[in-house]
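Lab meeting, item 3. Inverse folding demo.
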């Protein structure tokens, strides 16, 4: 059983990328829905682009988007205006984005895990593939369950044992999230009652665990890595923990508990209106070509490293791959619909 408390806010195998980024990105096709062979737009972009981020300023999406944009602006030849629209698990940002002119001058920087789950579960009227298309994936990372430095729990086994005696409170950034799915899956497998408490963002979610307002937290693993000694990772929802050094050699959840929970990741990706892709394919081709050049640029690797994000999480993917990631996440959302909606 899993309960929910409403809280007012107060695909990993890509380690070869760094060795072959230049060749791989240069050789990658546009893939998916973009028609090949179109000439690049001669006068696009003629002004700076608007970037919509459906979470708050200063969070992980802001960090990752700015790291990418710091190099992308050199390849695109234009700058960017960032706008942040947190609220309703990301729906506010998507609603705002869909009202923008579909001229390829506005993009959304998506967190494919929680936001695709949100689009599937909430009555947004926005359909992935029909209304919005993700044209370039940049990063992917697994989910993790962790505790603060003063927590009495040193291992995931200890947390589960306690959970078999009493309900365990878990801070999450938003209820529709791959990390929430991970905790639900542990609860189903181990007979633990988790009380999921959405805090509306990564920073307050983390603080709740650090101060022991909750028993533990579930977030993308990078959030724990940048917290350093303020976070103790108990388990990673992946087939392999590829960031052992940054997570204190944490085990995978399956290794720790003997479960068979699938990998739970979230990927950053750039999205555009489907209408922009249909009506301005030359502009989209220009965007994608410059994105691929950015991903192949060693300065992007350095920019990611400078944020504290392990560069092993750089995970380039063209439109076809980004959309496949989104559709796989939709299937997870459908599987856990009742539990994620609290019904």
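The presenter then showed the designed sequence:
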């Amino acid at each position: 059983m899993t309960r929910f408390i409403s809280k007012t806010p107060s695909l990993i195998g890509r380690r070869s990328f760094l060795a072959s980024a230049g060749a791989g990105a240069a050789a990658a096709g546009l893939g998916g829905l973009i028609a090949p062979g179109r000439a690049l737009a001669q006068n696009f972009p003629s002004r700076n682009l608007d970037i919509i981020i459906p979470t708050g300023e200063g969070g992980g999406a802001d960090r990752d988007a700015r790291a990418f944009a710091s190099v992308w602006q050199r390849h695109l030849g234009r700058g960017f205006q960032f706008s942040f629209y947190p609220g309703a698990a990301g729906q506010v940002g998507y609603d705002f984005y869909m009202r923008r002119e579909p001229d390829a001058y506005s993009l959304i920087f998506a967190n494919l895990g929680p936001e695709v789950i949100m689009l599937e579960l909430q009555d947004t009227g926005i359909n992935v593939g029909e209304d919005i298309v993700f044209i370039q994936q940049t990063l992917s990372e697994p989910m993790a369950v962790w505790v603060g430095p003063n927590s009495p729990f040193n291992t995931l086994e200890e947390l589960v044992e306690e959970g078999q005696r009493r309900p365990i409170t878990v801070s999450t950034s938003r209820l529709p999230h791959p990390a929430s799915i991970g905790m639900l899956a542990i609860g189903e497998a181990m007979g633990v009652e988790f009380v999921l408490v959405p805090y509306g963002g990564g920073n307050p979610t983390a603080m709740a665990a650090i101060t022991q307002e909750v028993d533990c937290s579930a977030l993308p693993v990078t959030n724990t890595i940048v917290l350093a000694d303020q976070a103790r990772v108990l388990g990673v929802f992946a087939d392999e923990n590829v960031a052992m050094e940054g997570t204190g050699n944490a085990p995978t959840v399956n290794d720790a508990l003997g479960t068979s929970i699938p990998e739970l990741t979230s990927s950053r990706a750039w999205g555009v209106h489907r209408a922009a892709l249909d009506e301005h394919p030359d502009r989209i081709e220009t965007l994608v070509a410059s994105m691929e050049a950015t991903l192949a640029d060693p300065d992007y690797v350095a920019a990611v490293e400078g944020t504290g994000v392990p560069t092993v999480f750089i995970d380039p993917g063209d439109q076809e791959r980004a959309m496949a990631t989104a559709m796989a996440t939709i299937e997870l959302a459908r599987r856990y619909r009742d539990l994620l909606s609290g019904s």
